[in-house]
């Protein structure tokens, strides 16, 4: 699998939105960069579905534009104007040419889900490879209203329980993608979250 980050050239704050071509052409999150639909259209003629990790603004601000352009199915855990399919923990969903398990991973957001196949992890914001706080294993912030460090820690533990050792591709909502020993990276993120120290000095 070789996802395309369609927000890679963004000059404003956005999540990574990943386009996965294949039998079921899918956009993982819609991002907040103006022109996302145009970038998607430059790579594919049709978009079968959008799957949302969660509904923070940086992940869904361009969903209206994507739906208007492509009329895809929209998969989300929580209610959403454009949702056509409700996601639940334990569901399976096709992304590109692979089948992914849906893992409910709240803490950073109450409606957060991650997607795990035999080879690939789309983690949204629950864990990331690199960000401004840590490299090589970090976790989503939990210092804002409605967030919980304890619940995030539980979610990362569950993700590790449900993630096959064969996963080698790691695509998060922020920071760089990673290829290699994904389990080790997620374990480092868990260890750092379990310290229960502020992620950022200003917290």
Automatic annotation (TrEMBL):
This is MBL fold metallo-hydrolase. Residues 14-174 form the Metallo-beta-lactamase domain. It comes from the Archaea. It comes from Halosegnis marinus. The keyword Metal-binding applies. The keyword RNA-binding does not apply. Its cofactor is Zn(2+). GO terms for molecular function: hydrolase activity; metal ion binding. InterPro entries: MBL_Glyoxalase_II, Metallo-B-lactamas, RibonucZ/Hydroxyglut_hydro. Pfam families: Lactamase_B. Keywords: Hydrolase, Metal-binding, Zinc. Its EC number is 3.-.-.-.
């Amino acid at each position: 699998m070789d996802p395309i980050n369609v927000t890679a050239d963004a000059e404003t704050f956005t999540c990574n939105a990943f386009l996965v071509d294949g039998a079921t052409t899918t956009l993982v999150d819609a991002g907040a960069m103006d022109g996302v639909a145009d970038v998607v259209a430059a790579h594919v003629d049709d978009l079968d579905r959008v799957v949302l990790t969660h509904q923070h603004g940086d992940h869904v601000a361009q969903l209206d534009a994507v739906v208007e352009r492509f009329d895809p199915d929209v998969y989300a855990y929580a209610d959403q104007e454009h949702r056509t399919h409700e996601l639940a923990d334990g569901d399976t969903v096709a992304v590109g040419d692979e089948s992914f398990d849906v893992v409910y991973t709240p803490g950073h957001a109450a409606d957060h889900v991650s997607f795990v196949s035999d080879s690939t992890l789309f983690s949204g914001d629950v864990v990331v490879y690199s960000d401004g706080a840590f490299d090589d294993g970090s976790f989503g912030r939990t210092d804002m209203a409605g967030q919980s460090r304890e619940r995030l820690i539980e979610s990362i533990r569950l993700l590790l329980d449900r993630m096959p050792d064969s996963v080698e591709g790691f695509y998060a909502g922020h920071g760089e993608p990673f290829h290699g020993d994904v389990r080790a990276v997620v374990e480092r993120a868990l260890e750092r979250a379990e310290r229960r120290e502020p992620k950022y000095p200003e917290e």
